[in-house]
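Record 1 of the preview.
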Amino acid sequence: MMKKYNIIFLLLWGALLFFNSCENETYNEHYQRAYSAQTDGPISEYIKNSSELSTFYEMIVQSGFDKVLSSSQTYTIWVPENAALTDFDTTNDIDVERLVKNHLARFVYNTTSEEVDKVRVMSQKLVNFVGGSTPTFGNASIKESILTKNGVIYIIDDYIPFRPNIFEYLGDTKGLDSLYTYVVGQTEVFFDSINSTVIGQDPETEKPIYDSILIEYNWVFNMYGDINDEDSIYTALLLDNQAWSLAYDSIKPYFKSFRDDSIEIQEYYTQRTIVKDLIYRGELTDISMYDSLISTSGTVFHNPNKIFEGAKQTLVSNGLVYETSNYNINSSISFLKEIRIEAENKNVIRNNDNCTLKSVRNYSDSLTVSNNEYVIVEPTTTSNLSKVRVDFEIPGTLSTEYNIYVQFVPTSLQDTTDHRPFKPLFFMSYKDEDKKEVSILRNRLDVDLEETNPDSLTKVLVAKNFKFPYCDYPWNEEDITTVILRVQNDARTSETANYSREMRIDCVILEPVKQ
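->
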């Protein structure tokens, strides 16, 4: 019985091999018939010997790809006829190399399918390739196809112009040097020790020698959009040198620093601020269609026409660029924003004395509390001399004027029978014009309120048009925030019949004063 099964299996296997062989032969015949000619030589040899392709062959030699196309690796190349290249300037080596790469791809692409195939050519551009009875490459028609020893040649009646992406356009265009130099300068190269392979050992240091893998990182690309990527579509506002200078001069004063390396810090934050709102997702061909736009940094701009006003629009391979000599980005929308410190956030509390802190969620609909949460400052002493107080750090202040507020929540929000107000007192410390840390007492602030409202939110004006001479942005990890606002309850134990010795603080608010 076993022998019978073996005979049947062999017969079935033989039949399978036969049909599979026939199927392969049919496919090979079909594959070969897809080309109008064949040659035993490599791609480079065929193009060299074809007089109607001599212009492109000279470009191949000029760019050094004649050696590449003579190798054993497989390629597909779309070769424009001489007539198609009559107007192309071959004197610029970079343009020649880009054009050759724009018509060359690794591996073999055939015309058997009529579906659109997006081919990634060696310039990293994506070009539409359509097969069938009327094959095309980009906008060019394919006139002839040749199967060679190491790939396929398609002869086309036009060339595919190299269209730069946003980053390439930035580097190619005169007058954009300032922005381009900055973006390029943010590229860092890191050694990838995990994926690199040890290939030996240094005999002197006995340290391993790696077949190194290096990783390029550019924070502008990673944070705001990889404008060098052909797979993503962006719209970029490109500032020319005049616009860059306008932006730099208008933003720089806000980042005046008291720290060591103050000039470097000021330049660093100024330039980062300039580029943060220059990139937008998608291809925005008509800005007037949009009531608002969101930059990739998350800033929402209403009436975006103003930003792009007078800019020259150019189509690139991964979207659009708007080249401008103006800087019309509103500082109060882009970076000069309200600073809001949520009191319940423990990370912003430097110190608290004579009290405990408890975060409370607001479940009432009668009052709108910031972030729907606040902190209860509960006294831990009955001494008249020991005042309840909390010190809040205020990071990110700029060198400009602010109106400073503290917002309180009434006790009656939680206990409807308690209508006692608080008696707030405020102190603030910061770096003065001489870079010295100073404290401001209540009599030097603008507080004109003796007590809070016991039945509603109270937004107390602590300081009006207060000018910080320096920004408080960190430079090193050990840098600490120097702007501190102390909120204290001045109610004494003997006053508890009329005043609450606890405090309920919602938030600290710094509103920039419009210049």
